[in-house]
Design brief:
This protein has 435 residues and is an alpha/beta fold. The chain folds into two domains: 171 residues, NAD(P)-binding Rossmann-like Domain (Rossmann fold, 3-Layer(aba) Sandwich), CATH 3.40.50.720; 207 residues, Dihydrodipicolinate Reductase, domain 2, CATH 3.30.360. It is 33% helix and 19% strand. The chain is built from 14 helices and 15 strands. A nine-stranded mixed sheet has the order 14-13-12-11-7-10-9-8-15. A hairpin with a 5-residue loop joins strand 9 and strand 10. Helix 1 crosses helix 2, helix 2 runs parallel beside helix 3 and helix 5 packs parallel to helix 6. The longest helix is centred in the last third of the chain and has 20 residues. The chain is globular. 46% of the residues are buried.
Length: 435
Amino acid sequence: MNKNKNIFAPNRRSFIRNSSLALIGSTLTYNTGIAAPSGGTRRNVLKVGLIGCGGRGTGAAAQALQADPDVVLTAMGDVFEDRLNEAYQDIIKVAGDKVKVNKENKFIGFDAYLKVIASGVDVVLLATPPAFRPDHLTAAINAGKHVFCEKPVAVDAPGVRKVLMAAKKAKEKNLSLVSGFCFRYDSSNRAIFGKILKGDVGDIRAVSTFRYGGELWTKPRQPDWTEMTYQMRNWYYYNWLSGDFIVEQAVHSLDMMSWAMGDQMPVKATGTGGRQVRVDDIFGNIYDHFAIEFEYANGAKGFHSTRQQAGTSNRNTVEVMGTDGNALINIGRNYEITGKNAWKYSGPKNNMYQTEHDELFASIRNGKPMNDGEWMAKSTMLAIWARMAGYTGQTISWDQAMNSNETLGPKTEDYTWDLKWKVPPVAKPGITKMS
């Protein structure tokens, strides 16, 4: 099988292994604007708990520990012990003695998230597969924890509604809730989207987004694995765990479309999708391409095209077309406005992953909570809605999508390694029904 690398899917574990951060004894160099303690008085140490120890969780933990001089990692949780142990070693390579996770605070199992939350931490990093996010976020907010919440935040509409309730409760409790929609923390994006929202391209008539890449990882089935173990090891390819790739990965593009439109929601979506190349059973029940059109109340259109097919060209772009000009965002390459208010970004670059955590911990220290909850939930819902339109081939309204009661996976209390979850067949537009 051709394992064509997707250059638009940065691996946070690779970030750890390739980091050029120098460790001198136990001293780290922090790239944060938070002032160090003065007068010999040490500030309160913030204790961090990591839930989900894959590549994303590993990177998020390392970045959290670099965001503030007085942050330590004290608890970790995952369903797989080998993954937790690998993450633990990787994080130590970057953070040294800021990793203070003793044996008793390494939690394994489907209830590990509850044990991490109850271990005395102040901040929780949520980085499990997306299916678990609504329950994990709800539990963390109910327990009064600040949260870094990876994207997407759910795989179905009931999950999104649960996240919206948790976000509201976080505001009521003055808790910070920062999203893993990292492109909103990129300095180049912030500059150009700021100009778009200020009106530099005029009234927006259309937004076009493309997210093209190749295949990702797979894990071969092992003799001692149950079916649940196999699906969890290959969670990306089961829509009940990932939401399909349009929800898990291409959601970044839809989030930027929403950003350009001031986070107002479209009124209807139409599209298609399918599975032409990635047809082997190892790819579970997800698609390998989608093409979706959104329509806004003022007549503006949003177009999204995405694919994951080996041997195809890569592309990650957003184009905003307005009455006074166009804005082109070619991720990592070019950020430019043409027309009446011509402009091109030439400012500094930042590590958007690190900035997420710098701003999260600054908000906690400053007593000015951040809350990305509402827009991160709605951006996730755009992708879920797009999947619904692609799976069914039908035009679906925002209200129909948002009020859907379709739940893709089992109830949280039913998770066991012996669970034989019946995975639905690959959806067929025109045949598969919306529920």
